[in-house]
């Protein structure tokens, strides 16, 4: 399906299509994957969001037993994953990567606008007008 059509259908379609195997309408809060390391990492302690990198999520294949580092600062050259750019002392970046694992191997949509409340997974926040207008 083309990106134009996906954008017009809205965030609820994105969540249902990407995170649900059911064709029936589902509660979007239940369809967003969970970070298995959420209680062991600093995702909830870092209140600030990073710089908006893109106004669309990034689809990526993730493996079950692997730990990943999602870029929160928005400066990584290997988006949506961290490449250590936040360590550059001249950039004075406060955010640190979000470490995460997934329950099962498969394709996931990671947030690229860095504004999600379900770090690192896309929750449709990028659909908001201020995010869409921030990136041309």
From TrEMBL:
<keyword id="KW-0001">2Fe-2S</keyword>
<feature type="domain" description="Iron-binding zinc finger CDGSH type">
    <location>
        <begin position="55"/>
        <end position="92"/>
    </location>
</feature>
<dbReference type="Pfam" id="PF09360">
    <property type="entry name" value="zf-CDGSH"/>
</dbReference>
<dbReference type="InterPro" id="IPR042216">
    <property type="entry name" value="MitoNEET_CISD"/>
</dbReference>
<dbReference type="InterPro" id="IPR052950">
    <property type="entry name" value="CISD"/>
</dbReference>
<protein>
    <submittedName>
        <fullName>RE40412p</fullName>
    </submittedName>
</protein>
<dbReference type="GO" id="GO:0005739">
    <property type="term" value="C:mitochondrion"/>
</dbReference>
<keyword id="KW-0479">Metal-binding</keyword>
<dbReference type="GO" id="GO:0051537">
    <property type="term" value="F:2 iron, 2 sulfur cluster binding"/>
</dbReference>
<dbReference type="GO" id="GO:0046872">
    <property type="term" value="F:metal ion binding"/>
</dbReference>
<dbReference type="InterPro" id="IPR018967">
    <property type="entry name" value="FeS-contain_CDGSH-typ"/>
</dbReference>
<keyword id="KW-0411">Iron-sulfur</keyword>
<feature type="domain" description="Iron-binding zinc finger CDGSH type">
    <location>
        <begin position="95"/>
        <end position="132"/>
    </location>
</feature>
<keyword id="KW-0408">Iron</keyword>
<dbReference type="GO" id="GO:0051604">
    <property type="term" value="P:protein maturation"/>
</dbReference>
